[in-house]
Amino acid sequence: MKKIVVLVGVLWLVGCKYSVNSQVENIQITVNQVKEHVEFLASDDLHGRNTGTEGIEKAAKYIENIFIKNNIKPYFQTYRDSFNAKDVVGYNILGYIEGNDRKLKHEFVVLGAHYDHIGTGKLVDGDSIANGANDNAAGTSAVIELAKYFASTKSNKRSILIALFSAEEMGLLGSNHLAKKLHGQNIDLYTMLNFEMIGVPFKDRNYVSFVTGYELSNMSDKINEYASSNFTGFSEVSKKYNLFRQSDNYAFYSEFKLPCQTISTCDLSNYDYYHHVDDEADKLDYEHMASFVNKVIPAIEAMCNTATKEIKMHE
Asked: How far apart are CA 33 and CA 36, in angstroms?
């Protein structure tokens, strides 16, 4: 996060409403799957994944190889969407999963997360590598597994753009670049859901996750309806620190003025290692992460399959 103090089939009901009873049955995201991604991305070998470094190049190649292996197409000519990031070149990694409906495939759901981090931090016990496990190897891991799921099931009527952003830590540069580019190309964006810091659970909430900018749209209510659970809620801490503006959803909201929000299970109150060298892979709860991804899949399926755009901004 930027610095600051799958029944797999598609069911239709009367009136072409999507069934919220869709369940992740045939494909379950496992603990080992999410853990493997985090352990690679947050390893010392990647030196904190700062934009423009050899470490983030290794991360980009890792993601690209997963896309190739799972037959996820590039959205542009290649997977890389390059841009100038101050004095270096940054690149978002983009994958495209075409919708299976003749009309709805022209509408897009963007699933995003930033895969960069800050590189180094304050020295602690001889360690200066800011590995960025929760921030945001965790969110990247979730988006990778969501991409693999939809590429395998092809259960999305709307098209899905998988966007893994670079230079978030430099001021949301990657998402700003991509949002402007897509807006200029007149993409028919329905909604954007960004995944940020989902590596640890809340211990004192009656919900699993929160959505930033909670009051701006019915995103949270619709996710809960589609997931058939109290999956998301309102975070006072998120509102206090205006986290809605602090991650890659904000560039898309700014350009499109549509529901573009971040989903997270950490609002800075339940993790002590934000931008800290101890944000390591062994600090995360992988059972929680796998459960989170499995629970969010039916909600994203519904977003991709409802007959109309049900997620809307509040007036």
From this structure: 5
Arithmetic mean of pLDDT over the chain? 93
* Residue span of the structural domain in which 199 resides: 30-305
Q: Is residue 147 part of a domain?
A: yes
- On whether residue 312 sits in a domain, the answer given is no
CATH number at residue 144: 3.40.630.10
Residue 315 lies in a domain: no
Q: What is the pLDDT of residue 16?
A: 39
How many domains would you assign to the chain?
Answer: 1
Q: Is residue 23 part of a domain?
A: no
Close Cβ partners of 94 (under 8 Å, ≥ 6 residues apart):
74, 75, 76, 79, 80, 81, 161, 162, 163, 164, 178
Percentage with pLDDT > 90 across the chain: 91
Residues ≥6 apart with Cβ < 8 Å to 38: 133, 137, 138, 141, 199, 281, 284, 286, 289
| Lowest-pLDDT choice from 20-34, 95-109, 121-135, 211-225 | 20-34
pLDDT at 27: 78
